[in-house]
Design brief:
single chain; alpha/beta; Rossmann fold; Immunoglobulin-like; eight-stranded mixed beta sheet; six-stranded parallel beta sheet
């Protein structure tokens, strides 16, 4: 009887504590060259903990522009909108890398702190000034981009062995975020159902700038992961792109590999190839190539001809690092020390024939030598020969398409 009473006391105390911890909406801010899809995993994990989807939002901002005022106004607008639709008096903020710099500067503006409950500074180095709101500094000594350390005057948590991108996406990071916001650990999730279909939605934006391409359409096809061929001639969904870049939700088979085709008004189509979505995802982001500015100059060197393909392999949740990870294309390893060093912290690998000699030297492409988070490998991808990709212990095959009309992008979670 005594044991039963003690169990009842613990359960009721836990329920009372959980109910009295107010859940404020959260705004997530990505880092350099990123977009809102940086936060796919944390957003899904907060939803698993009972957060309504309208309590979670992301800021997409142009990290290449020195004009930060536009981004700050957009962030302030998102905060005001969340406060209005949720009825809460404040929001929580999370900023990663350059996003941490943007948010920490934002917190110094007059009147802003009154709308902020707590702030988490993720892999973002020192602070301009200690914010007046409770702040968590989340860092990792394995982050070789920022090389974070303790900051006096805030709560500091050091995570072990996480690279610069993982600090934002890893489950350990989420647990620390949740604990800081709520004063308790997240509840374990058991017996997740295997769904036959899930709902996906997201945005189409210009790579690097996060602006919205004009007159763009999106079509979605299922494809066979062993041949790269489409399973149907008719798409499972066709979506127009709205003024903010978003596209309406689509219900898809949770076991199907999917090809997303972005057709812009001008320029090459972008073909995204994704592994099956086992859970619903509101942050499926797809990017077109920029047509102006610094980013356009970088990508202007990509081949455009009828004989070869241009491929980008994107690691969605962490960098690919030599000695820790494995990535290959047509049995050519891309996680060598030259192409995937820990210092490089590459999440995007550009694959094409750099010398136009139809020879795969596997050498780094100089164009990406100084670019953060990007790597390039000189590999000849001949047309009409399927491209086999392997990431860790998973593989998929995609079609080779002429670079004159298309850019291929393969995404691994």
């Amino acid at each position: 009887m005594k044991k039963l009473f003690l169990t009842f006391l613990i359960l009721t105390s836990f329920q009372f504590f959980s109910q009295t911890v107010e859940r404020y909406p959260i705004v997530f801010v990505h880092g350099m060259l990123g977009s809102g899809d940086t936060w796919v995993k944390p957003v899904q994990q907060f939803i698993n903990q009972g957060y309504p989807t309208n309590h979670l939002d992301v800021l997409d901002w142009n990290t290449l522009s020195p004009q930060r005022e536009i981004s700050l106004k957009k962030l302030d607008s998102i905060i005001d909108h969340l406060i209005q639709v949720t009825g809460k008096s404040k929001v929580n903020l999370v900023g990663h890398s350059a996003g941490g710099g943007l948010v920490s500067g934002f917190l110094l503006q007059e009147g802003v702190a009154n709308k902020i409950n707590k702030y988490i500074h993720v892999g973002s180095g020192n602070l301009q000034k200690i914010p007046s709101v409770p702040t968590l500094n989340l860092y990792s000594e394995a982050d070789l981009v920022v090389r974070g350390s303790e900051i006096e005057g805030v709560v500091n948590v050091k995570l072990q062995d996480l690279d610069h991108y993982e600090i934002a996406t890893d489950s350990l990071a989420f647990a620390e975020m949740y604990h800081f916001f709520h004063g308790e650990n997240p509840k374990p999730i058991f017996n997740r159902k295997n769904l036959e279909s899930v709902t996906i939605s997201g945005k189409v934006l210009v790579m690097g700038e996060n602006s919205v391409p004009e007159n763009t359409t999106l079509t979605i096809f299922p494809f066979h992961p062993e041949t790269g061929e489409r399973l149907k001639n008719e798409p499972v969904a066709i979506r127009a792109i709205s003024k903010d870049g978003s596209w309406l939700p689509a219900e898809v088979d949770s076991k199907r590999y999917l090809e997303f085709v972005i057709t812009p008004e001008k320029g090459r189509a972008i073909h995204y190839f994704r592994e099956p979505f086992s859970v619903s995802n509101p942050l499926v982001y797809l990017r077109t190539l920029p047509t102006a500015g610094m980013a356009a100059m970088l990508f202007s060197g990509l081949p455009a001809n009828e004989e070869e393909s241009v491929l980008v392999i994107f690691s969605a949740n962490k960098a690919t690092i030599s000695g820790r990870d494995f990535l290959s294309v047509n049995n050519v390893e891309l996680t060598t020390s030259e192409l995937a060093s820990a210092q490089k912290t590459a999440i995007a690998h550009f694959i094409y024939d750099d010398k136009a000699d139809r020879i795969s030297t596997k050498n780094p492409i100089p164009l990406f030598g100084m670019m953060p988070f990007m790597s390039g490998a000189d590999v000849w991808l001949e047309i009409d020969k399927p491209i086999k990709l392997t990431y860790q212990n998973r593989s998929m095959t995609i079609p080779s398409l002429p670079s004159s009309k298309s850019i291929l992008v393969a995404v691994f979670e």
